[in-house]
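Question (not urgent): is this output format expected?
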Amino acid sequence: MNTAAIRRAAVVSALVVSAISLAACSGADASTPAAGEDGLTPVKIGSIPVTDAAVLVLGDQQGFFEEEGLDAEFGNPAAGGSTVVAAVIAGEYQIGYSATLSIFQAIEGGNDLTLIAGASGSLSDPDLGSNDIITDPALGLKSAKDLEGKTVAVNAAGGFAEMLGKYSVLKAGGDPDEVQWVQLGFPDQLPALQSGQIQAFVAGEPFGTLAREAGEVTLANTLYDVSPTPWMLGVWFASSSAVDADPDLYARIQAAIDKSLTYSVEHEDELRAIIPDFAGIDPALADVIRLNNYDVATLTPGTLEPMVTAATKVGLITDEPDLDALIWKP
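Got this back:
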């Protein structure tokens, strides 16, 4: 088994084990929560501390969930999307947010999940990437191909950032297997680059903006490399059994998400205003970080296909799933 296959198997196994462990500990199931005294049905939402998930916080503040008879309850943000996936599988949350890759890896591992709504897409401007490969200009690297023989940090082995980095190397004519990919938390990546421990990292916001402000440069816009046409980065998803048990509930959740997305596009200043508390960053930084595309967050096989193609080419998923069947329709 090659290195990519070993890492992919490890990721899928970890998702399955985590889901089993969470289910055993929580005793949760996929049943619909009972409505409260106010007549609103509680909806537990799992996410990670990123701007994409903050869109629903903004929507809740605007009353979109209440309009649908829902009481949104946001869980403590998890460190990574795979943790949210496992918690949704275990029944801890009615819906969760994750990058699409973690969900497809979980499905490949035998878990029954469905996609409820889009969360964010990429931008068509190659100069506005939110997951750029960042490097030190003093190293003289010209393209992602120059990362061969270098050490590059990603936040999670076998995850979304690694997929993006590997695909950019491949797109530039390089061999991703000739790059040493190391796992390092987002906050630790810029110091590691500055100290010479690594030669590049695949950034997430706000860390890409922080790095550029510190004098580092973008080597590649990974999202644009996957496709210059906007494509789906993150989604809101649920357990298929939970959706089947109460489709009306999920139709209302879907409607509240759609309203939240529309509002965030029209009121970017309000979204940026709540990001500091949700993502734990400085308000001044929240004003300048790069946001993803919330205007393209429509779930279709076409918006999901670029990610699936890229992940398959670099060996992080094996088979392309039936995308149309995975998108839930009321």
